[in-house]
């Protein structure tokens, strides 16, 4: 297998619902990061073998293979193909894995992976507006469970014994870390500003400064009357896009590119679709085995904050160092633009590794239906 590297990673700011990016078409937002990736790396788009693009709600603005139309919106040559991947919240992380598999195997040499979601224009659940994706056999197998992620998050909190104060304290931590990272310029080099009718959007919009567990305690539970999960300890509905350039170490040298990280290992797992959001735990175990690493070898973990109990349960089961978990904040503060989130997290993690000399990073995402991706990269 060929040594595979990531040589570029860029993202838009993550816009809040009905915020600064809400007037952007998904193809145009994608085109922005595609062109920024080409500009920053100096790679001629004409040599790209494929563009693999994550997107969850593939209806309306995001229908009809948004990956292909993003390539065309970018003005890239018509011979460059594009395809769209849906592995729920892990869609663009899976896009990166597919890109790596194509390059590592020798089938392709230069692949762009990333994703987009403009949830302000294509609402969460829009793809289910005329039916259900589950079907009677699935409902029968799982006792007519609603497959509601919020209810699953409540079940995780109960199973791991987390109380309301703990989940709210974790959520306040996300905002505190994200604000600190933004203030010290940790995101500046990875973000491409977006020009909009309302002016340029240059920074992530979801951070709520001064958030405390005491303030969050006043929010009403969203999924169960006596529950713990509410808007303040859940990921935010968001807009955004991100893109990464994947190639071989040999091709990077030929093109005069400096690799950012080497791809070490990837894994995907299925887990209980009722608990649904626990997949990152076995996915982490699987990818560490493949990488030949222990949890203590990893210097930074990006575990998507779909709901606070998800990374909390992951932390409890893995025994990882809590200071290495989501050190820049997570989706509770920074937002979760579904199909873009995997690529956004990878971009954040890679730049954090570069800025701080961290050798190994591990990213994992819980996903609807009870699946999860995990990826390990190594600083070059």
From TrEMBL:
Keywords of the record: Acyltransferase, Transferase
NCBIfam families linked: AcCoA-C-Actrans
Protein name: Acyl-CoA dehydrogenase
Matches recorded under InterPro entries: Thiolase, Thiolase-like, Thiolase_C, Thiolase_CS, Thiolase_N
Lineage: Bacteria, Bacillati, Actinomycetota, Actinomycetes, Mycobacteriales
UniProt cross-references to PANTHER family, sorted A to Z: ACETYL-COA C-ACYLTRANSFERASE, BLR7806 PROTEIN
MF-aspect GO terms: acyltransferase activity, transferring groups other than amino-acyl groups
PROSITE patterns: THIOLASE_2
Protein's UniProt keywords contain Acyltransferase: yes
Entries under Pfam families matching the protein: Thiolase_C, Thiolase_N
Family membership: Belongs to the thiolase-like superfamily. Thiolase family.
